[in-house]
UniProtKB/TrEMBL annotation:
It comes from Candidatus Falkowbacteria bacterium CG02_land_8_20_14_3_00_36_14. GO terms for molecular function: 3-methyl-2-oxobutanoate dehydrogenase (ferredoxin) activity; pyruvate synthase activity. Its EC number is 1.2.7.1, 1.2.7.7. Keywords: Oxidoreductase, Pyruvate. This is Pyruvate ferredoxin oxidoreductase. InterPro entries: Oxidoreductase_gamma_subunit, PorC_KorC, Pyrv/ketoisovalerate_OxRed_cat, Pyrv_flavodox_OxRed_cen. The keyword Oxidoreductase applies.
Length: 180
């Protein structure tokens, strides 16, 4: 089973990112789940969401304490939250940052860190600093746990009521981060 933990701030689409991962995995024929962890937090407060992917039924419903993949949507969390808690030297990190790997202050091997400036891509393509979909392109490329095609299907399904323009922008953003 692959366990994924996503860190971000309230209002950044952290929960939606986990749901999109689960939907994409399901579209790829896998078993998946996604769920958030937050209480009375408000916009801007640190939150987490989780996703699991497997080829057999997933029985556990607990938080992801030892992630195989760590997605960090907001790099400012590195200064205030122990995002690497429970990670080991095999944990892959997908982080939204313009910094070079050697500049990223996280106690994990640099070879496991995949940095993408999802903010820059989101601002250029979507027109807003919403990196939750954008960073998933990098997640798909770095891990291979979901296909780009299945992510596109998940976005079409999740955002079907938001209009074709929103869908197209988000798909273009994931494609751009996938290329990087």
């Amino acid at each position: 089973m692959v366990q994924i933990r996503i860190h971000g701030r309230g209002g950044q689409g952290v929960v939606t990112a986990a749901e999109l991962i689960a939907m994409a995995a399901f579209a790829d024929g896998k078993i998946s789940q996604a769920f958030p962890s937050f209480g009375v937090e408000r916009t801007g407060a640190p939150i987490e969401a989780f996703a699991r992917i497997d080829n057999k039924p997933i029985r556990t419903r607990e938080h992801v304490y030892h992630p195989d993949v760590l997605i960090i949507q907001d790099p400012t969390l590195l200064d205030s939250v122990d995002v690497a808690k429970g990670c080991d030297n095999n944990t892959l990190v997908i982080i939204n940052t313009a910094k070079l790997k050697k500049e990223i202050k996280i106690n994990l091997p640099p070879k496991n860190i995949f940095n993408v400036d999802a903010t820059k891509i989101a601002l250029a393509i979507i027109g807003k600093n919403l990196v939750n979909t954008t960073i998933l392109g990098a997640f798909a490329k770095a891990t291979g746990y979901v296909s780009l095609n299945s992510l596109e299907k998940a976005i079409k399904e999740k955002f079907k009521d938001k209009g074709e323009s929103i869908i197209t922008k988000n798909i273009n953003a994931i494609r751009q981060s996938y290329k990087l």
